[in-house]
Amino acid sequence: MATVRRGILGGTFDPPHYGHLMLAEQAREQLGLACVSWVPAGDPWRKTGTPISAAQHRLAMLRLAVEGNDSFQIDTREVERGGPSYTVDTLALIHEQHPEQELFFLLGADALSDLPNWHNPAKLIEIASLGAAARGGKRIPDSILETLLPSLCQRVSWFAMPRLDISATDLRTRAAKGESLRYFCPPAVAAYITSNKLYTPA
Length: 202
Description:
Rossmann fold, 6-stranded parallel β-sheet
């Protein structure tokens, strides 16, 4: 029986946008993933002191963003757990519940470069392989990966992704200025941001 491959995509998703969706779909297709689980962070420890939207809003936007793609599912465990969100802990729990699945944690090249600064990165790459997006065909050479973390290059599977210069930070800034979010994120997400006055200065 073939091993089921499952993608895990974590983040604050504040808000989710087409860059997130493109990354998840390209990883699913190119890495042969049966599904991609989106895991919104509850209390992202790397963003302590940075204001983020309430979990209820981020979850609502994420549900709107992935609607219609049966291969995408939302995993709310980090939001429900409370306290700091550590990726390695979440992956360990998923692996414990689904030991028959091969896990691929999905991330961009920038996050991959920053991996040594994450909580227990050596354990993370023991539990899951890494699916890394080569935006515009740009990959980090194996020689550099090996300087970041021993055996890292053996745990990375690259997939191609068109370069989309869209960031959640930029969308929050645009929303705060009252600028259009059209073609940056799904229409339902843009409508939610407007109707709930998210990112609007008090």
